[in-house]
Amino acid sequence: MEQKSIKLNAILNVMKTVFSLIFPLITFPYVTRMLQVEAMGKYDFSGSIISYFTLLAALGINIYAVREGSKYKNDKEKINQFASEIFSINVYSTIASYILLFICLIFIQKLHGYTVIILIFSLQLLLATMSVTWVYNIFEDFGYITMVTLAMQFIALILMFLLVHNSNDLYKYAAISVVSTNGSGLFMYFHAKKYVNLRFIKKPPLKHLKPILIVFSTSLASTIYVSSDTTILGWVADDYRVGIYGTAAKIYKIVKQMLNAIIAVVIPRFAYYIGLQKKDQIIQLGQKLIDYMIAICLPAMVGLYCMSKPIVKVCAGESFGQAYLSLQLLSVALIFAVFANFFANCVLISYKKEKTVMFATILSAVINIVLNLILVPMYMENAAAATTIVAEICVCGISAYESTKLIKISCTVRNLVTSVIGCICIAIWCHFVQLYIHNQILVLCVGIIVAGGIYGIVLLIFKNTIAWEVVNRFVKRK
Asked: With the CA atoms of 42, 48, 51 and 52 taken in that order, what torsion angle do they form, in degrees rounded to the nearest 10?
């Protein structure tokens, strides 16, 4: 029964993530051509600024609430009290974030030209707080989130085609983006009453603050090394450079989010097993997840690297063609980012090792900022991409090392070797396709579909257990 629940949640969470990515995927070719590079640069720079305030509003509450709240989900009285305390803290952090945002907009001259679009983006702070996604994660209910996300994506998609037609529609696109990403917040707040009775507590207990702030410190460092490249690039360069880098970063983040969706589902289950000290289940779940991650992440990284040129040209247009170099660099960071997420949020956080994650992330953030300050003025967007690789490797390495001290989880050697062989075949095929086919859309279609088929065949021939498990399940359903 538990395995079925995990599979259903995984499917729903992947669906939710796919729906949240439908908007940028479909709108990429349209919006980049309508708004052009400089307007997209302004959009991306403003987004990097608001991300810091969004983080302050969130305060690391989601991870802490899921971990602690999972213990009380079968006790109505305790979960109601816990949820109300967490929600009240979140309200206060959101108010503080808005106050700080207004102060920065008034006194920092650099931001004056971005004030309107930043204020539009700031609606995310309020809607994210109201969404109480941590309640749904605690009760492992991804169905409602998936349904509402799909509805918001559909509405945003229609609005985008109706209202965005040229660079003067930048503010409209920013508002539509808010609807796309956080428009479900109001609906989720009222629907959460199905699980908890949320009430505002004027003086919530301070016992939650220390662990929340530790998680917040980690999230702050993570946001800094994710957003600092765009922020620094925007500060020292211009909107054009930010637009070029932002295009590569968006494609990279879309792929990374899809891969991380699988991990997000397992976190509550990991926390549950760890709370009950079910070591065998933890090892079994972790082992299988790592094998799946390798089988999926390696070809994704290789494919993204090899097909970067056609991907950029098809998604963003010829005017963004320069972004392919940054995308190639970012693709290298992909596998480290996904494994860092697993070891940090799935293992270390579940074992209450927030301080370890905080140290790894802060160190990575510091390295990233220093390298950005040194390299971005010289190498612009490519430097920003290169520093992301260093940051992801750093946090992944530390998190993996510390995780092995808690529990021994490793991959299956056969599965790793067969995936590498399959990836070599993908690289050869992608090179061959781009050499002889010149239509970029056809390159992508033929390259991705055939490469996927070749990869699957290689895994089956060399008896990759993950590939055969998928095939066997498919055959049984028939």
From this structure: -120
